[in-house]
Structures are given as C-alpha cells and as structure tokens.
C-alpha cells in the first residue's frame, strides 16, 4: 500500500507500507492514505460548495443593503423637497393672509358698526 506523509512544514514524503501497518514516529506529522485523500477531496468539494453558498448569500445581502441605501437616499431627498415646498406654501399663506386683512380693512363692508352709528 502506498501513502503520503505530510510534514509540519507542509512538505510530503511518499512511503511504502508493508503489510498495511504504517508506523509514524515523527512529531506531529500526519499520515494520508488514498482513502484519506478521497475524504479530503470530498471535504474540499463540500467546503467549496459551502463557501460558494456563503458568497452568494453575502452578495445577496450586500445588494439588498445597497438597494435599501438607495431607497433611503431617495426618501431623504423627497423629505427635503417636501420641507422646501412646505416653507414656500407657509410664506405664500402669510402673504395672502396679509393681503386679505388689508382688503378687509380698506373695504367699508368690513368696517366696524361704530363707524355706521356715527354717520346717522
């Protein structure tokens, strides 16, 4: 049986195993057999799929945040426009109110009854 030994520094050493009983006496070296490599490949595929799902979710969330930011900017601009319109209308109402008061005071129809009683 053939196996591959991965050292702590990341290097690999190919070794042959007699009677399928490997013995490794090095520090924290890891022994990989062909089955381990298949499991590792499957784990890598699953990790890649999980990473892809995570990336898609992150992308979706980022797009959603950006869309909400644009919506907030639009709403903020609309609020500013409405505030400006409100101030303009208040000013116009004041001018019209003053104009109406001036017309009423200039018209004899809206004079107080004291003036009418003096005429008689």
UniProtKB/TrEMBL annotation:
It comes from Salvelinus namaycush (Lake trout). Residues 1-23 are annotated as: Disordered. It holds the Pfam family DUF2205. Residues 1-10 have a biased composition (Acidic residues). GO terms for cellular component: cytosol; Golgi membrane; trans-Golgi network. It is a peripheral membrane protein. Signal peptide: none annotated. Its main location: cytoplasm. Belongs to the SCOC family. Keywords: Coiled coil, Cytoplasm, Golgi apparatus, Membrane. Residues 58-92 form a coiled coil. InterPro entries: SCOC. Positive regulator of amino acid starvation-induced autophagy. It is found in: Cytoplasm, Cytosol; Golgi apparatus membrane; Golgi apparatus, trans-Golgi network. This is Short coiled-coil protein B isoform X2.
